Amino acid sequence: MSTRNADFELVREVLLGHPTVREGTIHGAPSFKSRGRIIACPAIHKSAEPDSLVVSLDKQQRAARIASDPVSLYVVDHYAAYDVVLVRLSRIGRKSLRELLDGAVDFVGSKLVVNRPRVSRASVKEGSTTGQERARKPKRRQ
Fold first, then answer.
1. Structure pTM?
2. For 125-131, which contacts have Cβ atoms below 8 Å and span 24 or more sequence positions?
3. Contacting residues for 140 by C-beta, under 8 A, at least 6 apart
4. Which residues pair with 23 in a beta bridge?
5. Cystine design at 57: which of 69, 73, 85, 124 (Cβ 3.0–4.6 Å)?
């Protein structure tokens, strides 16, 4: 097992090991998403410490996680309203980072199930009143 410190390459390695995670960008910085929801990205706001990572985490769990590892985990006002925690990559251990990232993938996946009910195309075509109908453009006549 390698003894290197946690870094962004480890973040990439862990997250891309999950089948639903894709790498993309947000505000010009690399990011990792699952079905369009952000799992992790560099903390680019000026209030965040350098070399910090934003990781999705339930706000209800955040305080306990920060209390258990205040050297590695923190939050600033800019991010306080969101379901995220900030990670000092230079301070967190590899095992702790892996556990946090795996938990973030699970958390984002659980939000997708709860927040995005699937509507079949058949119900949309039949005039469903679920509020999930898609606006269709009228066909152009030539």
1. 0.75
2. none
3. none
4. 32
5. 85
Q: In what order do the strands lie in the sheet with 29-34?
A: 21-26, 29-34, 37-42, 52-56, 84-88, 73-74
> 3-state DSSP: the chain helix, strand, coil percent, rounded to 5?
35, 20, 45
CB atoms under 10 Å from CB of 127, counted, come to 7
Output phi, psi for 125, to 5 deg.
Answer: -70, -30
- Residues 6 or more apart from 94 whose CB is under 8 A from it? 2, 4, 5, 6, 10
∠ at Cα 69 (59, 102), nearest 5°? 60
pLDDT tens, position by position, 105-127: 999 988 765 554 444 444 444 44
Count of CB atoms situated within 10 Å of the CB of 28: 6
**Beta-carbon contacts of residue 79 (< 8 Å; ≥ 6 apart):** 43, 45, 48, 54, 86
Q: Which residue has the tokens 């050297």?
A: 71
**Is pLDDT larger for residue 135 or for residue 84?**
84
